[in-house]
Fold this sequence. Notes:
Elements: E1 8-12, H1 17-28, E2 32-37, H2 40-50, E3 54-58, H3 66-80, E4 85-88, H4 103-131, E5 135-140, H5 153-173, E6 178-183, H6 191-195, H7 201-208, H8 219-230, E7 241-242
Parallel strand pairs: 1-2, 1-4, 2-3, 4-5, 5-6, 6-7
Helix pairs in contact: 1-8, 3-4, 4-5
Amino acid sequence: MKKHEDKVVIVTGAAQGLGFACVERFLSDGSKVFMVDLQKDKLDELVERLGDRVSAYACDLSEISSALAADIVAKAVAVFGRVDVLVNNAGIMATADFVDFPEDVFDRTQRINVKAAFLIGQAVARQMIKQGQGGAIVNMSSVNANLAIPTAVAYAVSKGAMKQLTAVMGVSLIPHGIRVNAVGPGTILTELVTKSVMGNDQARRNLLARTPIGRCGEPAEVASVVSFLASDDASYMVGQTIYPDGGRMIVNYTVPVID
């Protein structure tokens, strides 16, 4: 029997990057996946390609509200009958000098990265409590919950909030058998990172000099941690953030970069 056989999983930010890696992993683990993303064309293509074990909901999480969160969950239940796992992955990142960082971008980042996780998590938890069989919620944090990037104030603040949201959700929901944990990746080779950081030799060297394992991570490596946290193998883990980061969080020096 597969690890997540016949479970129903909601993944936000599911059309690409870490979100899509999670979709692929849960499908391989035997799940049915309800994908949430802004990119309707990509979602339609994925539903066509992946078949009847996936369904999708296109919406803009920068416009998140309790009503929208409830509608996401209601549509997942209408298609698949229940919800067993939520992966709160949707997130954005923008950069600017701290003194010039735009207020509207800061607010939008918090709505997508934090408020959406809170409201969708709340709606999913209500559904899981109604079902009476527990469940698992995995939030996507980042090493930047702890490490500062001077030009990414909104992102760093949102991921710090995600770490604490995970802890509060964890202790609040465990009496209902709902385990909440988070994953805090280092630099992962998503489409965005590949085009930006890895396309700039100096940026690449600066990054790898602080990564003892000597390489960036692959999306599938993060998805495997998400799958673990959602499974019974992590049955005694509550409110924790795990950091698949190649050693970045523990290093206090630079390491040689292999060209």
